[in-house]
Predict the 3D structure of the following.
Amino acid sequence: MKDKAFKIWVHMGSGEFDTRVPMKDIAAEVAKSLPDNRPLMVEVIEQGGWHLTYLFDGTNDGMIVGTANDMARFGPEQEQAIEKLRNSQVEFLTAIRRPAYVPPEPATT
């Protein structure tokens, strides 16, 4: 029987970009809300289709294991984690759509 893994998709809100709200922080927030689902892959998707997939398994929390860049090169530790995930039975959890980004009010003196 194959090992089990979980995957969830998170669509960033309108106006949310990695420079404003880091994709890794979004992934970590979602993973924290799902502590019983490990190993967990959290795929964070920007509006233009760019995405990064982060692994949370208690050992490699926050490791990138997937990207929209089809020419990306992964290190040996990442390749090992990716291979283990490929050989797992993946349970797809859901998709989350985040609300529009509202920039913070500028500080007044």
Summary: The two ends are 63 Å apart (CA to CA). The longest helix spans residues 76-86. The first strand starts at residue 4 and ends at 11.
